[in-house]
Amino acid sequence: YQPGVNTMYEAPPPGYWNHFLGTTMPLGAGGFYCVVKDNDDGDGDPLRDSDNQVLVYVTATLPDNTQRQIEVLVKYADPSYVPDNAIVVDGSILFNGTPDILGLKGIAHANGDIVLSGNPTFSVSANATGQIAEGGATVPPGGFNEGVPPISIPDVDPTQYRNLANYTLRADGMILDVATGAMINPGAGGWNGWTYSAASNTWSLSGNNVTPAGTYYAEGNVSITGSGNSPNRTLSIVAEKCISTTGNTRLAPALTGTLMIAGGDIKLGGTAGASYAGLIAAKEQIKTMGTFDHQGVLLAKNAQDVYTLVTAGSVVEPDSQFGGTMSVTYDGGMVTVLKNPNNSVTIVSARKLK
């Protein structure tokens, strides 16, 4: 609306917030109006919210001119996705090997079944909306919990984040420097460790080059291979297809809390010393193997298979598989670039005033 023009939508000035003023909007033979004000959140400022909660007053005028009024305390969520679990899968999970799921939020959640083929460690719990085949795994402090309610998992669509790229790894083998608009031809020798295979539509990063920090959007697949003395790279990878890593790769995110987003599968490998940080999210499935440390979250949307980088194991397809001797540590509170899948506003309490 335009302030001073569409005045029926404007809230009362701050000086009148103790009065339920407003312009009545017609509704049937009656009408209603709403006022929003800050709750008492302890900051002493009615124009600043510090607890993500506000009070909404709704006043209805009935056809006989009597009025009814309610006060509702609502909490609004961050529009960005903040995971509550170290591993989140919208489907079934197979754990093999001896992975460690650690931290204050060392929880694996599956909107499906969990099969424990190896001996994983969970610092908190493993939760499944279906069944859990425990095998010989050690019971975590919070237990193996079956039949838990499913949780909302955000959509994983790489194309939504193309505009965040610093560099576009194009399907024609060229690299676009978004800031300058320059087109870079890596040629046979590559560019800062990046090379392209048209046959597999794959951009590969290898060697010890300290490639420029930033977010890389790939119109295809991405493969990252680390050698014994690979540098610590600050890179976020957004790929329309699949992402795979091997060797002594060390990556930290350039995007807010987000290291990888793939429109297909993600396969994470590593050798001793390999490390990752942030959210790693696949539209299809995730598979881990080898040895690496990850500070963050692994998320698989488990969309119907299009790609075959990760194939089904002993769990009914589609599924994700977490194995090897890797560790995932997550303490919670990590803001990511994915969109919050839950309602933006929830009701905390409500009461009738008249």
Measured by DSSP, the beta-strand proportion falls in 35-45%
The geometry reads as: globular
The radius of gyration computed from the alpha-carbon positions, rounded to a whole number of angstroms, is 25 Å
Distance between the termini: 30 Å
Count of runs of 4 or more consecutive helical residues: 0
Low-confidence runs (pLDDT<50, min 5 residues)?
8-21
- The beta-strand count equals 31
- Calculate the mean pLDDT score and round it: 89
In words, what does this structure look like?
- The chain has 354 residues and is an all-beta fold.
- Helices cover 0% and strands 41% of the residues.
- The chain is built from no helices and 31 strands.
- The strands form three sheets. The chain has a 16-stranded mixed beta sheet that branches.
- A hairpin with a 5-residue loop joins strand 14 and strand 15.
- The chain is globular and about 80 Å long.
Précis, in short:
This protein has 354 residues and is an all-beta fold.
